[in-house]
Amino acid sequence: MPIGTDFSISSTGDIRHVSGTTVYSVLDLHAWLQDLADDSAASGNDLLDILAPNPSKLDGPRDAAVASRLNLLTSGAVAFNIDDDAAQYINFGSIKQDGANVQYSGLKTIGGIVAASPIYVVQSGNKLTKFWADGHVQILVKVKSAGSLISSGDITAFSRKWGQTYSHFDVNLSAGGESNAALATALDSNILLTEAQAAALSTKVTVTFGNTNQDLGNGNGSKLYKGTIALSGGCTLSEAYQYLQYLTRENSSATLNSIPGWRYRVLDAAYTEIPSAPFGTFAGGTFFVARGWYLSGVLAAEATKYQLIADDGTTQVPPTVVSISVGNLISGDRVLVARDNGSGAILKDEYTPVAASAGATALQVVESIKTDTPSSGVIRIKGLRYTYASYTAGTKTFNSLSPALVSNIVAADDVFVPYLDRQATGATESVTFVYSSNFNTRVDVRNGSGGSPIIPFTTTLSVTNAGASVNASRNSDV
Amino acid sequence: MPYYVSPFTFQFTTNQIEIDSGVTDIDCSALYDGIKLAQASEEGIIYDRIGSGTGLNTLGPGVQTGLTVQLLGNWQLKFPAGNYIARIAGGNLIGGPSDDPIAYSAGVQALLIQSANSTVVSTGGSALTTQEHDLLVKAAKNSTLAAQLSA
Q1: How many domains in chain B?
Q2: How confident is the model at residue A3, as a pLDDT?
Q3: pTM for the predicted model, two decimal places
Q4: Domain with B108 in it
């Protein structure tokens, strides 16, 4: 259909869309207006001819290959203009009118997206009413009204369809012409639930904004996070990810820290955004949580299947907690599991003590305390068995020794921390600690008393990120 | 830190089993009981084994082969110095550095009573009946007579 059929022009310059669905370029509009303007007499509903003022002029070259910048002119009582409805049928350029007090600018989305990905445009915090079909858009957006730029000309193009990765792009349209917004969406294989199923997870996932200091126990100490995602009710990380995507999809009705979920982007403006998943991505069974969020209530089976980024930007990986277990014991067995010295013997000089006096209840060592040291347990000092309630990595100190040191300690004295050093009270003795790297231990199980003496059981045991376990052999001694 | 079980003091740092003063007779079985307790103690668990024991195999009701205690590594038995004879009996004691299980103590003469085929006979139970007594005497006489005839 010719443009003249779809639009009308009033005697005062109002250009209005009257029929049809064809979208014309800004240059098409200019060409049509100029064509009418040299007519000897107006006809039909296009009241423009050579007696009327010049309706339009281009700011820039007339080139059909590039977006045009069109000025709709005002002369006396005749002010050529389009309205918002007419603007829906014009693209590929910008239009100024009313002495540049009103401006429509071109927006075009580009990039690799899933076919027919729905796209919405947010301006001043509100979604623009869609008049475009799904898929890439090329439209005019009103960016100036009554002489003032709307939100400084800023808009954001979003695509957040359930089942796809999300995308958004900020554009400033104040300069006119046509600007591009690059979007990228893909099918999200980690979305396994329907929207209804995801909605039902609201009872299992709670999102709370607010500072919290948390220590993952990974040796990095307490870190500041600015929000908490609390899981409960057996919620898996996969479910949590899907629910959080649900909260931020295009049709979300959630409000996140006073921000509608459909335009929620990041916890703190200073953080780098993750357009594809505002709360973090899920890949290979691991939830890479967006910066600033602390995750609580993670199932034990998934204790190492997530990764956080603290407020300070440091990546925080939860520790791998493993255990060493010795089985086939009876109550009364003496069990010792200690780090191997490389030759099958106990590493008795694991640490060099800083001199300490008898009566002290803390012992500082020269070397850094190994990160795979149990948080509390037994420490052997000069061969004697003490317990420690904690250790401070920074000061390399074992705290709350019990009993207090029974003698003075000098640097030459042996100090080591066994993993197990106790008398069994049941069939199994075990200890848990944070895995750091593989190492070997020596295991001793002895029982020399009563009616159940056994030939001392000794073996070496390799500890991996799966921990280690061994059953003692019980051979009766004479 | 040593471990003590009467009359033995196990010195883990010097690998010596010190005998209480005044004790001159050591039974291997008691010694080995002490060794088992010491090496399974809180003090001893971080050290290598002190000794091993073999024997005490059952030959029949109440009869076992003798006990042999081997001291491992550099472990030795040490008596207090003095002018006396110390006896180690009730089994065989072997091992120690250079196969010497007894550390030198001034003035002490240590007597290791060893046997290549020792047995342990448990006492107890009921006495022989008259019938059993007669059979036993008869068997002994026959054995003696056979030996004399074959000589």
Answers
A1: 1
A2: 95
A3: 0.70
A4: 3-125
Q: Cα separation of B73 and A361, whole Å?
A: 35
Residue A403 domain boundaries? 352-412
Share of chain A above pLDDT 70, in %: 100
The one-character DSSP state at B74 is T
Segment A307-325 mean pLDDT: 96
For residue A167, the cross-strand partners are A159
B chain contacts of residue A338, beta-carbon cutoff 8 Å: 46
Give dist(CA A247, CA A259) in Å, integer. Answer: 11
Question: What are the phi and psi torsion angles at A341 (to 5°)?
Answer: -90, 10
ipTM beyond cut 0.90: no
DSSP A200: G
**Residue B146 pLDDT > 60:** no
Residues A267 and A285 in one domain: yes
Structure tokens that stand for A142 in this block:
């009103």
Does residue A439 share a domain with residue A388? no
* B89 vs A: CB within 8 A: no
Assigned domain for A190 exists: no
- Residues A317, A321, A327: CA angle, nearest 5 degrees: 170
d(CA A89, CA A189): 37
Domain count, chain A: 4
- Among candidate residues A128, A147, A182, the one where a domain is terminated: A182
> Which whole number is the average pLDDT over A311-328?
96
Is the Cβ pair B36, A348 closer than 8 Å?
no
